[in-house]
Amino acid sequence: MSEVTQEQITALLCQRLANFTEIETEVSPETNLITHLAIDSVKLLNLVMEIEDQFDISVPLNTLVDVLTVQDLANLIYKIKSLSQ
Amino acid sequence: MSLLEKLDAAAAARKAQLPEGIGAFGIPIEESYSATEARIGKRRVLMLGTNNYLGLSFAPECREAAHQAIDQEGTGTTGSRMANGNYYGHRALEREFAEFYKYRECIVFTTGYQANLGTISGLVGAGDIVLIDGDAHASIYDGCILSGADIIRFRHNDPADLEKRLRRLGDRSRNTLIIIEGIYSMLGDQAPLAEIVQIKNTYQSTLLLDEAHSLGVLGETGQGLVEKTGMNDEIDFITGTFSKSLCGIGGFCVSNHPQLDQLRYVSHPYIFTASPSPATIASTRAALKLLQEGRLLRERLWQNAHRLYSSLEKSGYRLGPQPGPIVAILLDNPRQALTLWNGLMEHDIYVNLVLPPAAPEGKSLVRCSINAAHTTEQIDQVCDVFSKLHPIVA
C-alpha cells in the first residue's frame, strides 16, 4: 500500500467503520464518528491501532483532536502517509 | 449545546446505560471496622474491593506514627514543596524510597495520580513520543496529554506489537518514553518486563514502569515486578503510589538518572500543589518499613489470591489471564455484571463493578481485590457465594 490515494483511504475507512459500530447506518465521508456512529473513546483508540498497521504509519492520538468525520480521519491518514514516504 | 447541557447529556447517557446500576459507583462507606470489614448502609460487609493488599490500613505502627506527626507538626503543610511545604519527613521518605530500590534519586508527589502526571510531563514534551500500553491507567494518559508529546499506543502486553511501533518511528525511537505497568489494574495481569526491556535497549528508548498495584505485592522485599524479574538495573524510571499497599495517599518516582531531580523545577504537578500532610508522610514511612519486612504478608496475600482464583475457575467463571491480588471476573454485558454485583452485595460482599468504557476492550467486570488480612474462612465464604451465584450469570 505504498501509493494509496485519499479516495482509497476514505473508502477503506467507510468499510472498516461499518464493522466498528453497533448502529445500522451507511457510512459516508461526512459521517460523524461520535454523533452518528456512537464510537466511544476506547473503540476509536483501537481503530487507530488498526489503521496504523494497515497503512504502516504512526498516528499520534493527539493528532485526533480535530477529527470529527470520516473525511477528517481520511485526510489525517493521507497526510501522515504522504509525509512518511 | 451549552456547557451545562453537555453535562446533562452525559448524565442521561450514563443513566441510559444501566439505570439501576447507578448506586454501585461511589457507594457510601458508613464505617470502616478493619482492613477487611466495613458497613455499607445497614450491612456489615466483607471488603473485597479495596487496594489494601497487605492489610495495613489499621496497622498500629502506622496509626501511631500519624498521631505523633499531627501532634508535632500539625494537620497540613499549607504549601508546596517549592515554598513552605518541604518538611524533614518528605525528604526522609524520599531517601528511604531511594534506598529501598537502591536507586540514586526519588521524588515524592502528593498523589499517585500526580506522580505519573508530574513524571511523564516533566520527562517528555512536544516533539518527543510516548509509547504506552493499550490498558494504561488514566493517570498515564493524562500525563501524556499534559506533556504535549506524540502519544502512540501498543497492544496490551504485546512486545512484538511494541517493537513494530518502535521500528516505524525510526530515529525518533531514541526520544521515546515507553510506559508500562507492573500489574494492570483492571485484569490483574503482569507486564512481560524482560522482553520489553530487551526491546527498549535495542531501540535505545527510555522505560517507565508504574508499580502502583505491584508495590508490596511482588518481589522478595516487595519492590514490585522490577524485583520479581531481577530488572533493577534496566528500568529508567519507576513510579508508584502510597494509596494501595502503603494505605496512605501520595506517590513517588525513583530513578538512577541524576536528571530526575530537575523535575522539581519543571513539573507543574509537583510544583503547583500542596505537599502531603505530615500524618500521611509519617504513616507511609512506617508502612514502607512494614512492607519491606512483609514477606509473610505477601505469602498470605498470594495464598488468598490463588485460593480465590482457582475456586472461581472451578465454579466456571471467566477470569483475567493470571492469578494475583486482582481477580477480574469477565461478564458478557453490563447487566450481567450488575446482576452478579447485586447478588454479592445481598450476601454482604463488596466488590468493584467496572463497566465500559472503564474496562479494557469494552468488557464488563466484577473486580475482586484480595488482602493479606483476609482469613481463609473469609475467602472460603466468598468462594461459596460466587459458586451459588454462578447460575444467574451462566
Automatic annotation (TrEMBL), chain B:
GO terms for molecular function: pyridoxal phosphate binding; transaminase activity. It comes from the Bacteria. PANTHER family: CLASS II AMINOTRANSFERASE/8-AMINO-7-OXONONANOATE SYNTHASE, LD36009P. Its cofactor is pyridoxal 5'-phosphate. Keywords: Aminotransferase, Transferase. It holds the Pfam family Aminotran_1_2. InterPro entries: Aminotransferase_I/II_large (IPR004839), AON_synthase_class-II (IPR050087), PyrdxlP-dep_Trfase (IPR015424), PyrdxlP-dep_Trfase_major (IPR015421), PyrdxlP-dep_Trfase_small (IPR015422). The keyword Transferase applies. Residues 45-385 form the Aminotransferase class I/classII large domain. This is Aminotransferases class-I.
